[in-house]
């Protein structure tokens, strides 16, 4: 596997050949240890969200509230993820990855206890939103860490592994959540996640070093008198306005490629919410633990999509294809595979709750999740490679944008489907997915044509 290969040396002159790259300061064991830790945090970030889903109907009954209020516990969690990720990106770019991660994990422990002790739905929604704010740090800071440790030509595969590991929560989160809540009540899921995050915090503190590239280059220069190859390229970080990354949305090199990420996230979240609320009702009438088991094939689909998308992105980046000359070329395989999302959404929307066998809508959701997950590694690899110095902020923007749109849409799923029904709703999502893919392809083509014209002019 290419993560065991030595990082590519960026040497362009005799003088540079004497300098060690920052990517070579970590031996293979250190890289694998760091990757193991951030993948564990990726698993937890999704686990924290999914472990609660099978217990949603029981939570609504316990608080004696409406389905709309129950869905708010999900949408406000996603809204917290969206808003806070911009903050974590800016803070980790300035203070470093490790102190920000530790602070967020410590606070997450207390927010989990707050969810467990909530006396009513309103307090519970507040603590769920707070949980979302804090858990987003584990993903945003981890994405920045990958950009710190792995070079551009191997980054797509690592992002694929990272997101593939997060899909393991789809295998374990709902299954554990459904079983635990059925045996001990829905509140017990938050005790379980609190214990889990405490263990992850201890392991992280003991085994993961600071990886921020500026801080590492300064450490080598000040403490060891060694100048790394990236030393002159690394600028002293400045604390920026957390909302400043939103300015990147004006860039034609970012927004067209964020849209497919948003479409993939909408496909996953909308299908998951519909699956949870529908499968406990006729014609299925499944128990909480049975609903949790339905997420296993979804987790497998997410894992396969992430790994395949990451491997193909790096394959294009390392080969001498004409499209490989531009950074955007690595996104093409994932965008092509994302077309399966359209088929999956249509199949899911027009069969969920209408056919007696759950296997048919579940197949549609598997296709939708697989397609949506294939685009993420290539797009994240492109963004962090193009904006290396602000990789944390750019990653946080991508994360925030996805979850902000998802939180808004999830809030209106129940009333919208009540009016237009599930078939037309998911058809709209399929059209949105197709449109975002076309926009991304057009942007890549324009970039490729522009570079070709520049080469021809330089030859003349």
TrEMBL record:
It is a multi-pass membrane protein. It comes from the Eukaryota. GO terms for cellular component: plasma membrane. The chain crosses the membrane at residues 32-56, 68-88, 100-119, 189-209, 254-275, 295-313, 334-352, 358-375, 396-417, 423-445. Keywords: Membrane, Transmembrane, Transmembrane helix, Transport. InterPro entries: MFS, MFS_dom, MFS_trans_sf. The keyword Coiled coil does not apply. This is Major facilitator superfamily (MFS) profile domain-containing protein.
